[in-house]
């Protein structure tokens, strides 16, 4: 009767190293444990996923009301506006905002937002009539202005805090923009 020797016969814990004097088995165990730990960590990080900030804010928005710093509310019959956030790729969005608040009072802003985790940079490339958030004035500018800000995400709510202190709070189908001068614009998602 021939006896066969299993190659796994000595694969057991050997604290004093007598059965594995070169430490090959222990090294293999440590390597396997390290690989398993690394794979588990990568899986856990992968399952958490990246936050897609633009997911909550892309689309077309229409202005519902503007509340002035003194509390006076301008209805949509006195001021009209639209905003579109168009996703260029997963880290960049093209944003256009247009407002009209009476005869000859037009404001328009064009900008590109670049998102880096929970920070962003905004490059404003066009302002007409002073641009969104400023006082109306006769001006046509191509400023190539840069601004930076922070992003906070909580479920369907995404808040962009602009470098000038203005906040854009997207919450489902509504958007509230609070300007640095105290004006508050309420927007509704149109698409």
What does this structure look like?
It contains 1 helix and 12 strands. It has 191 residues and is mainly beta. The chain has 2 domains: 49 residues; 137 residues, Calycin beta-barrel core domain (Lipocalin), CATH 2.40.128.20. The protein is globular and about 40 Å long. The relative contact order is 0.13.
Kindly report the CATH topology of the largest domain: Lipocalin
End-to-end Cα distance, whole Å, is: 81 Å
Main sheet summary: 10 strands, antiparallel, barrel
Number of discrete helical segments: 1
Top-tier CATH class of the largest domain? Mainly Beta
Q: Summarize model confidence as the mean pLDDT.
A: 77
Sequence of secondary-structure elements: HEEEEEEEEEEEE
Share of helix among residues? 10-25%
List keywords for this structure.
about 190 residues; mainly beta; Lipocalin; 2 domains; ten-stranded antiparallel barrel; about 15% helix; about 45% strand; globular
